[in-house]
Amino acid sequence: MKYRDSDRAIALSGIYQAASLVQQVARRGLVNADSIAANIQSLFKIDADSVADVYGGVDGVAPGLRLAYRQLSGEETRDNELTRYLLALVQLERKLNNHLERLERIKEGINTIAARLPHFPATHSNILGALAEIYAENISQLSPRIMVSGEPVYLQNNDNVDKIRALLLSGIRAATLWRQTGGRRRELLFVRRRYTNACRQLLDDLQHNR
User: Fold this and answer.
1) Per-domain boundaries in the chain
2) Does the pLDDT value for residue 107 go beyond 90?
3) 70, 82, 103, 201: which could join 75 in a potential S-S bond, CB 3.0 to 4.6 Å?
4) What is the CATH number of domain 5-208?
């Protein structure tokens, strides 16, 4: 299947969105309900018809698209913490791809959790806790370990820890999607304009269709 710049932009924006949501939970203990839902639900969209469908449509990743555009275009000062999370997620995904047993355990775990979705929303603490456990058991031990910075009062809250780990797992999912669509780390240095143009076009299309 041939992927377009827009597909890679959506996948990359999914990583940005996951990283930003982690940052929000760690700093403020708050997170946009719609955004976290799109990211968590992406973990269960294994056989989606398109990259956009992984997030329930482009609208599901709109915050990530706006963030990717601002960060890659230089419209706002680069957020070094956010960039650190993003690059670590990309590195972790590549490393995880070489651990077939871990990948199989993650897949089985997600399939087991998916059976609960008819009874619980994707953002229910029951679901987030189970996803967090998958991350802790299969990814936390790999390097680079993602050290999340934030306010101790929020980072010591168990529900927030579960949200952060579940969101990091969704970031790994987005990084997998980005790699599968042809995304490469060097592109973030040398072909940023292609990403910013694709993000801008997707955002313009969203605005036009509203």
Assistant:
1) 5-208
2) yes
3) 70
4) 1.10.3890.10
